[in-house]
Amino acid sequence: MVAHPIQIRGAFASVKDSSRRTPTILQMREQDFIDRLINDLSTSEGRKRLQADIASNRTKNNVLRLYQPVHRLMHLALVDVSCALPGEPRLDPNRILGAGVVVRRVDQRGNQQGWMKKNGEIVGWRTLPTADDNAASSYDPDPKLRENRRLGRNAPLLKMLTPANSKQTEWEEDYTSLFAAPPDVCKSAGKTFLYGTIPLSSAEYIEGSESIQSPPFSKADIRKRMPTLFKTGGAERKNLPETNMELTANSRKLRQASNFFKVLEFLAQGTGLFTDTPGTEQLRNTLERIPLADMTMVEAYLQFLQLNISPKDTKQTSTSEREVKMQIPVLGGLPAFDLTPNPSLGGFLRQAFEILIGQPEDETAEAKAVSASIRLPKAWPTIPTSTRAGKSTRGYYPVTDEMILDAIYTAMTARWNTLQQVTGRYEQTDATYVICAFIRVQDRVECPPRTLWTAPSEPFEIVPWYESGDLPPAKVELPDIDRNMLSKLKPNVSFKVPPSVQKFMENINLDDLIAGEKPKEGSLDFGMICGFNIPIITLCAFIVLSIFLALLNILFWWLPFVKICIPFPKKQ
Predict the structure, then answer these.
(1) pLDDT digits (tens, 9 = 90+) for 388-423
(2) Would the pLDDT of 307 be above 50?
């Protein structure tokens, strides 16, 4: 068998058409779009109808837009394969070992990126290792076929032309198979048509080590948001929380107490400190090393002895400040010690959270034993910079602002890793894509197959799922509010309500909720199974939706766009 030039191109393109070498993109709205495609390909009139279905929806900047299946529109890639000989005879489909279409993302530099896998693990979008275009190519989506071509008869030459790349040689590009039209269709049309769906939506996401991302914030960002309580002196310390105030859970309404509640909320929500979220160990230990009140070195050492912690470098057990000061010249300074002060700033903040935010009054037996109020200290501890920190005669300052910043960054990074969403295939809504189609052709049994590609299609965007498509909206019929009709709407769904929810629902009152008051606890101590009717639930949701649409219209002025009501005659 002698190899001869083969061409793969878009269907319906004339010889002079610039899009001749790119795949044709059809936009189909029929429910059985494959059946309609095959029927139309079999006749000349049908092929003309298909040309009217070539995707043409564009933005104001003339960028092609393709819809997702959620819009009830399907997009197909259609190509025909022929021999590059006079008359362009169609290629025998039996010579095609495989065919497919790939969706590639175009980066800001114009490079094409394929959705890649490595050893069965999705690694995401990666720049293609080659720029071959519409020719017999060493590049194939399958890394095994690429390697076979490199190790063929001309292995030394092929290795020079396509140098190996340790990462790229293992990448497998995702593609969707193209299928040959039935033989009778190709025979009547005089063309070998290949077609396949274009995957414009996907639930795939990056896996394994490739999915680990750096947090979208830096230490500089955290420093700006960090409460002033953890910052060094200067103008920033002027906004410290009030001191020596008696606070209760209702004190958050006081302007003087707002800064302290912001500290607790930052630690609770931003870092997860008070719920002992994994990754907060460093922050918890750092805050517990800060004395709640500034201490001299002698005071710190005395507290160290009183806590029955044996010094590392001495056997002194002095318990008076005078005796400690007398020993300093003899010892050449205070012995090394590591103090966890009592009380500490970390312990005080945890206690304040439990009283003011963490446990509502009278909820549990443990909460009843906790005091309902807490008094803020007379002064907040000094947080030194790295250059002024340490255990010197100035005072006991074991923690610096940088140490607190590092601990907060570590905690927030750990929290980000638990909350971050995986990177999906089509997550970037403003990305630009192209499609390319390929075929594998066997020339000689002893040689690897050739892989031939179309040119990239016209760049396009994928319409987000939340935008409307060209088809009419789905219709949901609501029941008529009529006693006879409502009597027919028997429960067709049930909810299993646990005892805790049933207690809450027993005495729930809308006025109390609006006033910010907790409903009185019910007396029920058992759960229930409650049956409802789905159309009634839908009717209630529609009424509530209409109310909120009207309320929020004050802000968004969206009713003319999101709500269109057209009257229809009443049924007789």
Answers:
(1) 666 655 678 889 999 999 999 999 998 888 877 678
(2) yes
Q: Which residue has the tokens 């837009």?
A: 65
Tens of pLDDT along 251-275?
888 888 888 999 999 999 999 999 8
Instruction: Report CA dihedral (44, 47, 49, 55) to the nearest 10 degrees.
Output: -160
Q: Which residue, among 190, 151, 188, has the nearest Cα to 169 in the 3D structure?
A: 151
Adjacent-strand bridge partners of 493: 532
Q: For residues 22, 431, 177 and 189, what is the CA-based torsion angle, rounded to 10 degrees? A: -30
- The CA-atom distances, in angstroms, between 560 and each of 465, 563, 564 are 21, 6, 7
Residues 6+ apart with CB under 8 A from 368: 361, 362
| C-alpha distances in Å from residue 53, one per residue of 28, 29, 38, 159, 436 | 7, 9, 14, 44, 19
Tell me, what's the pLDDT at 366?
Answer: 53
Tell me, rounded to whole angstroms, the distance of Cα 487 from its chain centroid.
Answer: 45
CA distance 103 to 197: 11
Please state, in angstroms and rounded to a whole number, the distance separating the CA atoms of residues 200 and 74: 9
Residue 331 pLDDT exceeds 80: no
Write the Ramachandran bin of 69: left for phi over 0, alpha for psi from -120 to 50, otherwise beta: alpha
Q: DSSP states of 525-540 as a string?
A: -S-EEEEE-HHHHHHH
| Dihedral sign of CA atoms 298, 303, 309, 315 in order | positive
- Separation CA 572–CA 566 (nearest Å): 19
Q: Amino acid letter at 450?
A: R
Tokens 């219209």 locate to 553
Amino acid at 464: P
CA distance 205 to 426: 9
3-state class (DSSP) for residue 413: helix
**259 C-beta neighbours (distance < 10 Å), count:** 15
Cis peptide before 215 (omega within 30 of 0): no
Please choose, from the candidates 19, 13, 32, 16, the residue with its C-alpha nearest in 3D space to the C-alpha of residue 193.
13
